[in-house]
Design goal:
homodimer; mainly alpha; Arc Repressor Mutant, subunit A; 2 domains; 3-stranded antiparallel β-sheet; DNA-binding
Chain lengths: 124, 124
DNA sequence: TAATCATATAAGGATATCATTATATGTCTA
DNA sequence: TAGACATATAATGATATCCTTATATGATTA
C-alpha cells in the first residue's frame, strides 16, 4: 500500500460509509465468509460482495478461498502504518505528498495577487 | 468530538473526496480565507464553502471571521486523537463501539444456523 | 445608510453511488 | 460430468452528491 494521497483517499472513501466501516470492524475480530456477513448485515449477497471488493481495493481486507467459500479478514496493521504516515505527513504536507507539491508556488503567488488582499489579516 | 462510529464515519467520508483531503492538508500548513482557497483550487466559491462546511461538521477544521473574511484552519490534533481511538477500538470493536455491540449475539447465533455450515472451515 | 465586498445558502441539472434482481463463474460432490 | 451451492459481475432503477449559477446574509466603508 503506497503512502500517496490517492491511497489515503481510497481508504477514507472506503471507510466513509457506515456499512463498510462496520464490515471492516467485524473483520478485525475474525475471518468471515460472504454468506455469514450477509446474515449479519441483512443486505443482499451482491451488496456484501461489492462492499468487500471496495474494502479490498483499498487494501483494508484480504480474501482467501476455502472450497466453496471465500473468507475475508481485515488488515489493520497496514492501515495503522498508513494512518501513521498520514499523521506524519500533515505536519508538512507539501513535502510529504507529491500531489501537494504544486501548491507551494501557488501559495507564494497569492501574496502578489492584488485581488486577494486578505493575507494582511491572517494570523499565523 | 465524540469517539463513536458515527463520528468516525463522518470524518472518513469528509476526507474521502480528494478535494477535501487536499483542503484539509493545505489548512494544516496555515489558515486561509475562502477566496484564497477558491484561487488555489480553481473551483467556484460556493463549492469551496460547501466542502469547508463538510470538513467543519466533521470537526476537522475551524473558522474565524476577521472583518469581511472568514479564515479556516485545520484541527489535526483532534483528528490524531480520534484516529488513535479508532486504532485502539479495532482491537476489540464490539466492546469499543456501542454501535457494534449488537453483533455479539448475532455472531453467536451464526454457529447454530444450519444454513451456514462454513464456520467449520474457518481458520482463526 | 447606501454601496461594495466576502461568504453562505438555495435551486437545478449532471453524475456517481447504492440496493436489488438476474445471470455468470467457480468449486464441490454424487 | 451434471447438479447444487457460494460468490462475483451485470443490468437497472432510486437516491445522494457534486458542480454551477443565482440569490441572500453579514461586514465594511464612503
Amino acid at each position: 500500500m503506497e503512502n500517496s494521497l490517492a491511497t489515503l483517499q481510497k481508504v477514507f472513501e472506503a471507510l466513509g460509509q457506515e456499512i463498510r466501516l462496520r464490515l471492516f470492524l467485524i473483520l478485525c475480530t475474525n475471518s468471515f465468509c460472504v454468506c455469514e456477513l450477509e446474515e449479519l448485515f441483512h443486505v443482499s449477497q451482491p451488496a456484501i460482495s461489492r462492499h468487500l471488493n471496495i474494502l479490498k481495493e483499498a487494501g483494508l481486507v484480504t480474501d482467501t478461498r476455502k472450497g466453496q467459500w471465500v473468507f475475508y479478514r481485515a488488515n489493520p496493521e497496514e492501515l495503522k502504518t498508513l494512518l501513521a504516515g498520514f499523521a506524519e505527513g500533515w505536519r508538512e504536507p507539501l513535502r510529504a505528498f507529491g500531489e501537494m507539491e504544486e501548491f507551494g508556488e501557488k501559495i507564494q503567488a497569492l501574496a502578489q495577487n492584488p485581488k486577494i488582499p486578505c493575507a494582511l489579516e491572517r494570523e499565523r
